[in-house]
Amino acid sequence: MRILTGLQPSGKLHIGNYFGAIEPAVRLQKQGEAFYFIANYHAMTTMESAEALRENTFNLALDFVSCGLDPEHSVLFVQSAVPEVNELAWILSTVCPMGLLERCHSYKDKVAKGFQPQHALFAYPALMAADILLYDSDLVPVGKDQKQHLEVTRDLAGKMNDAFGEGLFKLPEALIAESTAVVPGLDGQKMSKSYGNTLPIFGEEKPLLKMVNKKILTDSTPLEEPKPVEGSVLLQLYKLFAGEAEYQAMVDAHLAGGVGYGTFKKQLFEAYWEYFRPARERREALLKDSSHITDVLDKGAVRAREEASRVLSRVRKAVGLGWH
């Protein structure tokens, strides 16, 4: 089984990235052949600084390995190290209806948030489809917000198979952990860097504690009264890090009253801080020898290009671009 997922290097890794893609990827890496990439072409749609793009790309690789990715069991590479993906994206675009792209909510959401309506942002799903199909992927761990793009990928693969021969592309399946399909942001919206409501995985303890205390959405229920459980951002976040018994104890304390939100936030922070302790320790060790990360990416690029060249050669021949 070929497993594939990618993440944009668009800033600090947050817990939405972790539970939506990284944790499933790390968990799955020994259950099949795992290809994981850093989507720096995609990041160009929202990032203007070349320096920031380079820095974020390296840091994302560092964070991915720190969170448990094992280069002995996974292929980790940078998207732009495999230029074949752009040729495949163009080929896919020749069968991609405009209406399919116009229906994609991600583009509309970003434009509504003030992003420039560029062609690259609009055509993002076609490049994502190429990312997935270029490696004969079977399973793609994604957050719930990317499910529609997976459906676009399957649609384009089906159109190519109909036009140029059944079996040209596999039809990949999305893997979405429903319990963490959408991680809430500190303000109750979906956690997203675009909304400025994220909780980073890595950072200094005191600023992160302040973020939890100041930014998590709560209401004005007095300390002595029961607190609402339904829709509680605090409880939804705590559930990600606490065991079942600890989570139920916090629910019970909400319903009983007599405990303030400050106490609950302190419990949330302690659970979150402890959860990522092993990852922080691995990251500190890796930072002492940054060449290890560049070596991992270089080796990953070689392996990824081997696979990409094989698949693209098959596609070129099928569509009439190869004449030998």
Question: How would you describe this protein?
Answer:
This protein is mainly α. The chain has 15 helices and 5 strands. It has a 3-stranded parallel beta sheet. A two-stranded parallel sheet has the order 4-5. α9 links the parallel β4 and β5. The protein starts with a strand and ends in a 5-residue tail after the last helix.
Helices and strands, with pairings:
Elements: E1 2-7, H1 15-28, E2 33-38, H2 40-43, H3 50-66, E3 74-78, H4 84-93, H5 98-102, H6 105-112, H7 119-122, H8 124-133, E4 139-141, H9 147-164, E5 173-175, H10 205-215, H11 233-241, H12 244-256, H13 261-275, H14 277-287, H15 291-319
Helix pairs in contact: 3-14, 4-8, 4-15, 8-9, 10-13, 11-13
> In what order do the strands lie side by side in the largest sheet?
1-2-3
Strand coverage percent: 5-15%
* Tally of alpha and pi helices: 15
Please give the number of β-strands: 5
Instruction: Detail the poorly predicted runs.
Output: none
Going by helix content, strand content and strand pairing, the class is: mainly alpha
Silhouette: globular
| Helix percent band | 40-55%
Question: What is the residue-mean pLDDT, rounded to a whole number?
Answer: 91
Radius of gyration: 21 Å
Distance between termini?
Answer: 31 Å
Which H/E pattern describes the elements?
A: EHEHHEHHHHHEHEHHHHHH
Reported for the largest beta sheet, the result is: 3 strands, parallel
